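Practice set, problem 2.
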Amino acid sequence: QVQLVESGGGLVMAGASLRLSCAASGLTFSNDAMGWFRQAPGKEREFVAAISRFGAYTEYADSLQGRFIISRNRAENTVFLQMNSLRPEDTAVYYCAARNGDTRRDPNYAYWGQGTQVTVSS
């Protein structure tokens, strides 16, 4: 079974940048599309970004307006989320997810990490 472990979260000021990492292991990782979701206190989990298994295709939540970049290093079994121009509204627990198949914007992913906290202060 694929295992995902997020890291790189922390406390930053508005306007700063942060890079999240997701270390993946498992027999099917190379065939998995990967996604990032986030969940703020009292709110539902929402889609952030996703990347296809070879990294040729990416998609993002419309509200991000180009501030985030998702990428993956297949050789290192790692997925990244580069977050720029962070805003207080970006504060949430960020989750890495994997699924066998195409990227999806809904939470229909088979595997999930434990999450990493991102807090953006104003």
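Problem 2, part (b): a different protein.
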Amino acid sequence: QVQLVESGGGLVQAGGSLRLSCAASGRTFSLYAMGWFRQAPGKDRDFVAGINRSGGNTYYADSVKGRFIISRDNAKNTVYLQMNSLKSDDTAVYYCGADRFGSGASRDNYSLWGQGTQVTVSS
């Protein structure tokens, strides 16, 4: 069983960058596809980016394509989200998720979540 802890959130000006990290415990991290989701106040939790078990395939929501990059380092049990050209619409709590059986491309198979980290973008 994997446990997830996000970090790296904070306050940033529009156009700036942040890198989020998700540290995973357990010995089965490489068996999970991983992803990032976000949730603004009063809104649904939306898929942002996903990555398969080896890190060779990545998937992005249209709203972040070309701006965000998801990556993973299985040796460090960590998944990252590099966020560039941030907009005020990116303001949300960002959650790391784990997908045991899928590829990371679909939200339907995510079953584990971290506690979230706040990202606030000022315009």
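Answer key, part (b): The chain has a mean pLDDT of 95. Residues 20 and 119 are 9 Å apart (CA to CA).
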